Amino acid sequence: MPPVNDFDSFFLHLPPFDRSDDFDAFWNSGIQELKKIPTEAQLTENKKKSNARFTVHDVSFKSFNRSVITGDLFVPHDIEKPRVIIILSDYNAKNNYRNYILDTSAAYFFMNLRGHDILSVEPGTNPAPGEEKSYPGYMIENILDRDTYYARGIYLDVYRAIDMLRLRNFLDCSAIGIIGKGFGAAAAIFAASMSERVHALVLDTPSFSYLRLSQNHSESDATEEINSFLQKNKSKNKTVKKNLSYYDALNFSDKISCPCLVTVGFKDRFSPPQCVFALFNHLICDKTIEVYPDEGNEAGGEKQFKKSMKWITEIINSQ
């Protein structure tokens, strides 16, 4: 177990925001741009994925820059117009939530992060002995242009997913829940800060938060890609730092109004605990944090997932 002073440094971490004066205007403009793009959603029942508990639909829809975003929608058989939970995986990582048993008290939309459904190497795959790890490189895509940066697409994709789901007449999207892992949690924070339909939020070891610090401590693929770019382009450091501030999850934290459940592992090498607490401490909503002093990025694993799922379904189904 970490020393007491480590606990104190995590719990008491409250760094200042670094939002630019046009932060809100930037994101409101992005939302307005997105609304001009037709959703053009397509849902196709997938009988191979469906089972005795859920009908599964292959989903696609248009989002930021008219990119096509995909995912799987699980709809329970025994509920008419179920509430929905959006589930987001971490960057360049497997969505382990797909391996867990889902409760039939809600529908679930597993959204693929843009580009992740066409990766030549499966996310989360370890390199063979002697081989270097392969990175998709998305996190440095247009990083010098805040308006077209890859993360802008991810954040707006989740917001667009809410719009896509609310237009399905067999779903009740008046109270949506979102579960995000790592970078997916950062995207979930953005969506919850922008949409009144999000009534519960689970942030599973959130990353891409308090970037001023996490870029020096995190060993995540997203951090590795950005730091590698900066090492080769040192003259662009100021521009990148400025652009990333528009995507730092910390800068959305005080805009969340729905209940929020956060998980953290004190041995997490990808989502530094001091950065998770920086985010948590800035939340001004009804909030709870589940602390795992002796665990890393898994932070409770399936047991915590079941606990988080029970928490989020009870909230959205009580609205």
What is the compact description of this entry?
The chain is an alpha/beta fold and 319 residues long. Helix content is 33%, strand content 19%. The protein has a nine-stranded mixed β-sheet with strand order 1-2-3-5-4-6-7-8-9, sandwiched between helices.
Number of domains: 1
Largest sheet: 9 strands, mixed
Quaternary structure annotation: single chain
Tally of strands: 9
CATH topology: Rossmann fold
Mean pLDDT: 92
CATH superfamily: Alpha/Beta hydrolase fold, catalytic domain
Helix amount, in percent?
Answer: 25-40%
Features:
319 residues, alpha/beta, 33% helix, globular
Describe the structure.
It is a single chain. The chain has helices at 4-11, 23-35, 150-166, 183-194, 211-217, 221-232, 237-244, 273-282, 301-318, and strands at 42-45, 54-62, 68-76, 83-88, 107-111, 172-181, 198-204, 260-265, 287-292. With 319 residues, the chain is an alpha/beta fold. The model has no long low-confidence stretch (mean pLDDT 92). A 9-stranded mixed beta sheet has the order 1-2-3-5-4-6-7-8-9, sandwiched between helices. The chain has one domain (4-12, 77-119, 132-318): 3-Layer(aba) Sandwich (Rossmann fold). The chain is globular and about 55 Å long. The protein contains 9 helices and 9 strands.
